[in-house]
Amino acid sequence: MSAAQPAVAAHPLLEAVIETKRFGEHTVLEETLLRIAHGEIVSLVGPSGSGKSTLLRIVAGLDRDFAGTVALDGVVQQGPSAQLGVIFQEPRLLPWLTVADNVCFPARARDGSGKRAERLLEEVGLARIGGRWPKQLSGGMAQRVALARGLFSQPRLLLLDEPFSAVDAITRMRLQDLLLSITRAHGMAALVVTHDLDEALLLSDRVLLMAPPDGSHAARIVRETTVDTPQPRLRDAIVDGRLRSQLLADLAALAPTSCYAYPSEI
Ligand SMILES: Nc1ncnc2c1ncn2[C@@H]1O[C@H](COP(=O)(O)OP(=O)(O)OP(=O)(O)O)[C@@H](O)[C@H]1O
Ligand SMILES: [Mg+2]
């Protein structure tokens, strides 16, 4: 398995160079280079514990305790940036704020932001619900609100950590379509952490595979796969069977044996 050689332009939107990331004595990530081009969608896949969320949090500026740099358009970042929108697996809405105020939260509800919140809610398919409370929303609606909040600062890069894994299959498809249409409409790039290979192949220009620690190495990116199939991609046909089989084989090779063993082998 070869190390990733990101094939993005000489002037990427994002360039994260992580020499090492430790939690206490434990080195979790090492020798990780992540580049994302303007407008590019990149998925990050890998077994549990391979450092996907750790890498995303570093890129988001939420974890600054690492050796390396994160640069946006060549400018080294020192923490969270309005150029980045972050969306997690759970919507993380504040229950004491209305839906509209949750969307405006990144701007702490400045003048005119209410109208902007309504426009963003409309864009994610939730017109006229700005006055509702988070507890009145379904999981899929709440995740759309989280997406609207992530878009509030007009970011250039969306960072999404398993964003659709807690919703039903149909809602998930709609949210995937929504992500594609929004990134296209705004010329935004996205980094999507997912365990779903079909989702990765549906959404992404590139899929990066992360390997968990193996005794001699910490977690790191070990393979880069370019998905050439033009968008829009068909959901009822496998996007690229050859790539899918290769990714599945790579994942199986990386995961602890017991995860993939038949019951008789455990
Ligand atoms: N706050 C923390 N303190 C100590 N160790 C941590 C912390 N966060 C993550 N780790 C460790 O770092 C490694 C990578 O974790 P991370 O959450 O990034 O994996 P992941 O690929 O996102 O996994 P999953 O697919 O299960 O979400 C794991 O070994 C985990 O135990
Ligand atoms: Mg994770």
TrEMBL record:
Which molecular-function annotation in GO is an example for this chain?
ATP binding
Q: Which InterPro entries match?
A: AAA+_ATPase, ABC_transporter-like_ATP-bd, ABC_transporter-like_CS, ABC_transporter_ATP-bind, P-loop_NTPase
Name-wise, this protein is: Vitamin B12 import ATP-binding protein BtuD
Q: Which organism is it from?
A: Paraburkholderia humisilvae
Q: Which UniProt keywords apply?
A: ATP-binding, Cell inner membrane, Cell membrane, Membrane, Nucleotide-binding, Transport
What PANTHER family does UniProt report for this protein, alphabetically? ALIPHATIC SULFONATES IMPORT ATP-BINDING PROTEIN SSUB 2 (PTHR42788:SF19), TAURINE IMPORT ATP-BINDING PROTEIN-RELATED (PTHR42788)
Q: Which family does it belong to?
A: Belongs to the ABC transporter superfamily.
Question: What gene name is given for the protein in this entry?
Answer: btuD_6
Q: Where is the ABC transporter domain?
A: 14-237
